[in-house]
Each structure stands twice: as structure tokens, then as C-alpha cells.
Design goal:
This protein has three helices and no strands. It has 89 residues and is an all-alpha fold. Helix 1 runs antiparallel to helix 3.
């Protein structure tokens, strides 16, 4: 019974870490030169919805997405590690 509980705890903390890391990554994403930080829908699509002159912002959207996902994965790894450590006690 304890191993089933520890598996769920690890999974839950991993998901919480993923969401927290993604949120932090979104808040600290790189800014564009004049307009500042790009909107969420532009970042999550990596700039695929940009048309015309706005296509200049595609590399920034891709960088913002990569930044957000990297921090989300780090958050998930921290959450999973915490879940594994807490389940041992």
C-alpha cells in the first residue's frame, strides 16, 4: 500500500513541478525589442500564427517557448525528486 501511495505522490509532485516551472518560465521569458514580452498564444505556437511583418518575431517566440519548456522540465524533475525523497520516509 505504501508503494502505491508513493507512486501517486511522486506523480502529483511531478505535475505540480511541471505547471509551476512552466508558469515561472512564461513569466521570465525573453522580451521583444519594442513590444516587450509576446502573448501566450504566440509563444505556445512558437510564432506559427504570425503573418506579414510580424514574422520578424518568430525567433523570439521560438526562444520564449524553449525557455518556458526548459524551466517546466526542470520544475518537473524537482517535483519528481521531491516525491521520491518524501516517499522514502
Amino acid at each position: 500500500m505504501a508503494s502505491k501511495y508513493s507512486g501517486w505522490l511522486t506523480l502529483k509532485l511531478g505535475i505540480v513541478g511541471l505547471i509551476a516551472g512552466g508558469s515561472i518560465g512564461f513569466l521570465y521569458r525573453p522580451s521583444a525589442l519594442i513590444i516587450g514580452q509576446l502573448p501566450f498564444c504566440t509563444v505556445i505556437t512558437r510564432g506559427a500564427n504570425l503573418k506579414g511583418v510580424e514574422q520578424v518575431l518568430i525567433p523570439i517566440a521560438q526562444s520564449s517557448f524553449n525557455h518556458m519548456m526548459t524551466i517546466a522540465i526542470i520544475g518537473a524533475a524537482i517535483g519528481i525528486t521531491l516525491g521520491l525523497l518524501l516517499s522514502r520516509k
